[in-house]
Design brief:
234 residues; alpha+beta; 2 domains; 3-stranded antiparallel beta sheet; 6 helices; 11 strands
Length: 234
């Protein structure tokens, strides 16, 4: 996992800042617990000196130094049950840990990481493994095997194979790894995907020994064989 949701820092300036007191602040995060937020808040308070601006330092600390301050270089530890989720400190600062259980927050973190990786990919110039042209990442797709193809090449590749009825060959053109059907669905037209889905189902049913198609040409509905001896089907 390369990306995590940000630590949110909000603040309120008052008449004693920056002469005597630092701004009031609120820290919230989707994956840090309250104890970790307390550690971070304590460090921010220590950075303040009377008659000195501190907001830029606070933002830099939260953005660039939080992992070191909280000893997270080797990974993030999530509480199985995060019971203490809010705290109001004596100085008026608020701390909010927004996740309830590790089981619930992990899918959220994975989704965020995938979204940010896609956004980063979209901003790059990448080379299509078929046409070998450099194109914007937003015009390309990166498969689970890490091979990259522009959408035009993939659409043509999928369309040819589905039109020919060879749906079993819809694999990565570079390494032959299976392609997620969702990739196929977002690349081709709805009509062509419907044909792909139907052919794939027919191919699967053809491998089942207890499935037989109705012999009437106008029907051809797949049926379950109940008894081979009695020729009974459902």
């Amino acid at each position: 996992m390369n990306f995590l949701p940000p630590v949110n820092l909000t603040f309120t300036l008052h008449e004693d800042y920056p002469i005597k007191l630092p701004p009031k602040l609120s820290l919230s995060c989707a994956w840090l617990d309250i104890d970790q937020l307390v550690t971070l808040e304590n460090h921010l308070q220590e950075e303040f000196e009377e008659d000195s601006e501190v907001l830029f330092n606070w933002i830099s600390t939260v953005k660039d130094a939080a992992f070191d301050l909280l000893d997270l270089e080797n990974g993030v530890n999530l509480l199985k049950f995060n019971k203490k989720r809010k705290m109001l400190l004596k100085n008026g600062n608020r701390l909010i840990s927004s996740y309830s259980t590790a089981r619930k927050i992990i899918p959220v973190l994975i989704e965020f990481d995938n979204h940010e990786k896609r956004e980063e990919f979209n901003r790059k110039m990448v080379k299509c493994d078929v046409c070998l042209e450099n194109k914007s990442g937003c015009a390309c797709l990166k498969l689970s095997c890490d091979h990259i193809f522009c959408q035009m090449c993939l659409e043509e590749y999928f369309s040819i194979l589905i039109s020919e009825g060879t749906v079993g060959d819809l694999k990565c053109p570079s390494c032959g790894e299976s392609i997620n059907p969702n990739i196929i669905k977002e690349t081709i037209s709805a009509e062509l995907f419907e044909r792909f889905d139907r052919l794939l189902l027919e191919r699967s049913l053809a491998k089942m020994e207890d499935i037989h198609y109705c012999p009437r040409p106008s029907c051809r509905t797949p049926c379950i064989i109940l008894s081979k001896e009695g020729n009974h089907i459902l």
